[in-house]
Design a protein that fits this description.
This protein has 165 residues and is α/β, with parallel strands linked by helices. It has one domain: Rossmann fold (3-Layer(aba) Sandwich), CATH 3.40.50.620. It has a five-stranded parallel β-sheet with strand order 3-2-1-4-5, with helices on both faces.
Length: 165
Amino acid sequence: MEHERAHKNEIEKKGSTILVAVDFSNSSKAALRKAKSLLAGEYTRIVALHVIDHHFVDQCIYEHMGTKKEIKKKLFINAKNRLHDFLLTEGMDLNNLEMAICEGTPCVEINKKAVEIDADMIVMGSQGHSGEMKTIFFGSTTERVLRFIRRPVLCVPPEESHEQE
């Protein structure tokens, strides 16, 4: 009984962790806004994750845009600055938020990060920046995350203008 009470107190202190996948699309803006609206209490934290697709790094190397080290350095610096600006533009409090940037296959890295931080939920846009043909043949990153994750995922559609034409 005492062990159960201690475990419950530990969970309450830990709070909830929401992982938000960010690719800078309109859908990821909507996902970030939704995650912000889900904040419930002082112990909830948001981790904003941007994944640099390793296929893009390989393509840059193939196109002789620099050495692997130079390309990765530029991409990580650019991603960090862009993520920081993106979060500020969306009105996020950077003191209560963690930024994470990694390289790899987006669906794999999102799943790995969710496990690493013990995320209670993943919030991501339903439509990202992947090419239409790639999505037709291989599925979207969101679909691939859903196939393999064992945690709740909230898929947020891009916000649309509700103006009458």
